Amino acid sequence: MIRTLAVENYRSLRKLIVPLDRLNVITGANGTGKSSLYRSLRLLADSATGGAVAALAREGGLPSAMWAGERKAEPAGLKLGFAGDEFGYAVDFGVPQPGPGAGGARSMFALDPEIKRESTWAGPVLRTAALLCDRAGPAVRTRTADGGWHRSQGIKPYDSMLSEFADPQLAPDLLRLRELIRSWRFYDHVRTDADAPARAARIGTRTPVLTHDGADLAAALQTIREIGDEEALDEAVADAFPGSQVRVVDNGGRFELQLHQRGLLRPLGPAELSDGTLRYLLWTAALLTPRPPSLLVLNEPETSLHPDLLRPLADLIVAATKDTQVVLVTHAQELADAVAKGAARHRFDINSIELVKESGRTTVAGRESMLDEPLWYWPKR
C-alpha cells in the first residue's frame, strides 16, 4: 500500500507531500489542484510503461507542465514519487539538452523532457543503504544479491529504468515494483453521451477489468455475475434503482445491457438509459471487479449523477477498500460525506485531504508546517 505521495513543480503542486491510507478522499474548491494531483498519479503509472515522457510532451512539454511561479536557484525539474511499506520510487524530469537528430540536424523532439534522476528503494523512506536501483543521467546501477552494485549500464534520457531494467535476474525488485505500478487502475470522466462506447452492443468475452472507456460494460457486468460477487451486483443496482435488475443478453455473440424496472412491460436498452443511470452502472462494474487492483483512482465519479445515487456509489467505494487501496478525487462534498458515513458504518479509517490554493500554490488545508508532512527525501541530481 502507498503511504506517501510526493510531487514537486507540477503545475500548482509546488511542493506537496501527502500521506495516503487505505481509503483516501481528496476534496477542494475548483482550481485548487485536485486534477493535478490525479494527473501526477497517472504520470507515475505511465513511468512503469515508459509513457511518462510522452504524456508530459502531450501537455506541451516540461515548461508547460511545470510550476509557473518563482523558484529558488535550483535545477529546473519536475519530481514525482511515492513510498509504501515495501518499496519507494522517485523520478526527476529535467529540461532536455539540445542534441542532433537525423543527419546531424537539431532534433525535432524538443518537447520531450529528460529523466535526470530515478531511484527505487526498500521501505517507506529513501536512504542510501536502502537503494535498490539508482539512475543518474544515463547511468543505471542495480544492487547485487550480496548488497554490492552491478556494473553501471547506459540508458537513453527518455527511457525509464522501470521499463528498461526490470529483469528477473538483474533487478527482481525493480520488476516487482513495475508490475505493482502497472496494476494501478484509473477511471476519469467515462463517456455516457449518445455515441458512448458503453451504449453499443459488442462481442462479449470474459472481462474482469472494465476498460477505461467502458466499451465492454455488458461483458464486465456478466463477468461479475458469473465469476464475481453476483449478490453484490444485484444489491448495488436495487439500492440505486429500487425494484430494478440488470441483465445481459447475447445476440449472436454480441452482448447488450438491459435494465428491467418495476412497472415497465419491457426492459430498457443501453440507448434508452439516462447519462446518470449508465454512469452508475459503469462505476458498479469498475468497483465490483473480480480482479481488484492494488490501487484504484477515481476522478470525479459524481459527474452527471443524481444526488440520490451518491450514497449507493459511496457504499460501492467503501466496499472496494476491502481488497484495494482507493483514492477518490471529488468536487461533491455530498459524496465525500457519504463515503465518510459508509466508512464509519464499516469501521474503516478514512484519510480526508482538502486542498487549498495560496498564492497560486496548492497546499493541504490545516497543515501549519513541514513537520505535519510525512518524512520524504528526494534523490539529489
UniProtKB/TrEMBL annotation:
Record GO biological process: DNA synthesis involved in DNA repair; double-strand break repair; SOS response
Segments forming domain ATPase AAA-type core: 23-335
Keyword terms, alphabetized: ATP-binding, DNA damage, Nucleotide-binding, SOS response
SUPFAM superfamilies the record matches: P-loop containing nucleoside triphosphate hydrolases
Organism superkingdom: Bacteria
Keyword hit for Nucleotide-binding: yes
Pfam families linked: AAA_21
A GO molecular-function annotation: ATP binding
Protein name: ATP-binding protein
Originating organism: Streptomyces kanamyceticus
